[in-house]
Amino acid sequence: MAFLKGIELQGFKSFAGKTVMSFPARVVSIVGPNGSGKSNIIDAFRWVLGEREAKQLRGGTLENLIFAGTPKRAAVGLAKVGLLFDNADRAFPVDSNEVFLERRIDRAGTSQFSINGDDILMRDLVPMLARAKLGARGLTMIRQGESDVFVASSAEARRLMIEEVLGLKEYRIKKTQAERRLESSKINMDKVRAMAEELLPHLRLLRRQKQRWARRSEIESELRTLENSFYTTQYGKLAKELSSAERPPESIMKKRGALEDEIKKLDETARQIDKPSVEANRSRAVRDEVGELFRRRGALAAESAKIEAKMEMLQNRPTGSAFDHDKFFETAKGLVSEMEEAAGWADVERIKTALRLWAAKLSKFFSQAPAENDGALAALIKNKEAEVRKIDARIKELREEEEKLARESENANKKFRELIGLIEEKKNEVRKIDVDVREYSFAVERVVLRMEEIEREWEGIGRAKNELKNMVSQGSMNTLVNGANTSEAERRMFRLRGELSAMGDVDEALVREADESETRYEFLSRELTDLDRAIGDLKKLITDLDTRIDGDFKEAFKKINDEFNNHFRLMFGGGKARLKLERKKTAEAPEANSEGEFVATAESRHAPENENAIEGVEIEINLPKKKISDLSMLSGGEKSLVSIAALFALIAVTPPPFLVLDEVDAPLDEVNARRFAELVKEFSSKTQFIIVTHNRATMEVADALYGVTMADDGVSKLLSMKFEEAK
Ligand code: ATP
């Protein structure tokens, strides 16, 4: 039962029209003259199986895959190649017994795959083909002139060729994908880590500031509580003092009024008493009159004394003595001035004595003067005396009146003094009341002033006046602050305010920035955790895949090696050959761990890895009869033989579903070409062969033979030559 059932070409390279080639047999040979288009069929296989490079398909550009037209045949716009597979064993994950894989390309370069008519993306197709052990390159698809491909390839490429046949390419693809994802995850992680590390110092700063502000709200709340209790207590106490301050009773004020009235009345009375009175005027008049009377009386006494002295002189006058006029006038002049002085005297006795003295002085002269009439003089004196008596009587009268008046005045004064005393007493009482009243208002004023001061302080700390009043009136006074710890509370408030001002105001924008930065940092941290986990998972996956690939590979490798030696000996008629695994690439140095906070933890969980190191397959040979061990020293044919030996060794251990070989036998001599044909025949039970060949031996072992020709129109045509026979 053939796995590959056929190929369809249309518009592909020289196959302008639709060409269907079915493969009912295990060995199908394609033959034809040079340039007829045989290799184009091989290209078609490679292209439909996912070859991307135009160069690999012998076309400068992908457009060259489309039939370009010839002078006799017009170009086409679309190339299609389809492979028909038997899918009874579900080699393709499609629920169908046959799978038709097709690839199309138009001149715009649009290429599209489909499976059973359904489009499929190349990236989905590639693992599917790998699982079915189908590839566009390698040992299963050997191009013309590349029969030595196994020898000519690098050790790593050899290994990949073997892996493809072993069906390990699927894991290799997965590994590559995982490695790519790992790489991009690492790059992402580096980026995220760099962002986190860049953010962190600023975030720390913002965090510290925010913490300070968090402490600020604690302080603010403590301060507020303290202020509330402190001020409400103070204010409340004063309000209580104010309401309970002892107001002077109403009766006192009434009494004060009455006292004032009384004082007014008493004042009036005193004023009346103090007014200059009739009595006082009278008293003055009496005094004046008495004075006047005394003056008059003095004058009368003087006149009387004068007369008496005259009389005495008359009586005692010496007879015959001469009268000295000059002396008399001088004496008289002196007497007159003395008398004028004496007229002012009040003392009667003094006046009398003076009068007697004057009389004596004068009488000396009268004794010399002619005698006068004594009788007339006596009468004169009598008159004078009578007048004096009258005056005395009057003076006596006036004295009595004066005394009376003095008594009356004394009484009035006494009364006045009494009144003044009384007024003073009343005034003292009023003053006492005033002191009490003033004390009360002082006390009230003091309390009010203190309350105003507290209100100012309260407003000064940015609070509303009403709030304080409301709190106090609602009785929400905090009793925590009482007299005992008031100063302590004040000190504490002072300290808290100091702390707050040192802290500065809360910058809302900065808080927002801190929150945003925090969110961003959390996001980055989560990203790092996710990436870290993803990296861990990918590394684990890669390790698992490596284990799987290595395990499967090494298990098959030993058998392949044995088969290789056998086939080598068969091909070369002796000698020795072996495949050797060799790791050329050295392990990468472990990455230095970052010192970032989060990053360090994430990174440190992963062991350093050994990526991309692959054990390549080296070939060691010992040719019979030759001392050649270096592959480069082999001839072209020898290289092809070694490659073919490897190919059959591989088929012997794990046969691929089919092989497409383009003139692999070309460099071989007749003997070796026959050997090759025999091997093809031998292994055709294990794998299907599609072979382009010019070699008769190969053609002979083919079950089906297709001929390709190209006529004048430049279009390849297919001839089935051995088909019937093969059947
Ligand atoms: P040989 O036996 O010498 O290897 P071959 O049979 O393998 O020959 P191919 O190389 O398959 O021949 O075919 C080459 C021919 O295909 C050439 O004649 C070339 O002009 C023709 N060809 C290639 N590409 C195109 C294309 N895009 N349009 C038309 N013809 C093309």
Describe this structure in words.
This protein is an alpha/beta fold and 727 residues long. Among the domains are: 1-134 and 657-727, P-loop containing nucleotide triphosphate hydrolases (Rossmann fold, 3-Layer(aba) Sandwich); 259-437, no CATH class. Helices cover 61% and strands 11% of the residues. The chain is built from 18 helices and 14 strands. The chain has helices at residues 38-48, 122-131, 149-152, 155-165, 169-244, 250-274, 278-315, 325-342, 348-366, 374-460, 465-473, 486-503, 508-572, 597-604, 636-653, 670-683, 696-701, 723-726; strands at 4-10, 19-22, 27-31, 78-86, 98-106, 111-115, 118-120, 141-142, 576-583, 615-622, 658-662, 688-692, 704-710, 716-720. Helix 16 (670-683) links the parallel strand 11 (658-662) and strand 12 (688-692). The two termini are 13 Å apart. The model is unreliable at 586-611 (pLDDT under 50). Residues 13-14, 32, 34-40, 64, 67-68, 144, 714 line the site of adenosine-5'-triphosphate (ATP).
